[in-house]
Here is the input.
Amino acid sequence: MNIIIGILIPFIGTTFGSALVFFMKNKIKSEVERFLLGFASGVMIAASVWSLLIPAIEMEQEANHIAWLFPSIGFMFGILFLLAIDFVVPYFKFSKRDSKLKRTTMLIMAVTIHNVPEGMAVGAVFAGFLSGNAGITYAAALALTIGIAVQNFPEGAIISMPLKSEGYSKIRSFIYGTLSGIVEPIAAVITILLTSVMTPIMPFLLSFAAGAMIYVVSEELIPGANTLKQSSIGTIGVSLGFVLMMILDVALG
Here is the structure.
């Protein structure tokens, strides 16, 4: 039961963040929307560096591999993956009128992809605890899951709130935001069951998620946060989101 609770904690963080949609008005003001897009950009950039790329590099160093090789390859594969989706899959060929929907859809995909290796990391830690040979205590594993849950809180909000602003009901927006985090406990369970298979490719998966997030930030979020000239609200959002996520990653890492 303790293992199940630990695995579900990050998902609970996403759920609570998604629930913020119930406290918003029917429509977000343009200034607030640009701030949220900027904030989401900052959160995703910081998470890509501290939660994904740095751990991937450290894992390669500990394995006595070329530290930058697989993280670089994984990062570029993440970029190319969303680039291919953007150009090949007809669903993403939106008109200018539907550009907001495209941006939100890509954001959901990026956050969901990002949650997969996070869930695998949680599974790997608990697998180490269960093995009894990795020197990992339950308290240490629980600390990791709580840290990820705190990080997931704004991620749930940056999915559910834009959906509501585009006409979705609060219930649907909440459900979609919550579902973006359901992949974490699923990935954690799979990793526990397949630890010996998943662990060697973890650096690639972490950096793949980082590449996917950076693509969405540069292609969709930052341009959307700077739609008006003479406005710095998007830049302020990027700065605050980056600093907040950096603090969370370092303090709770």
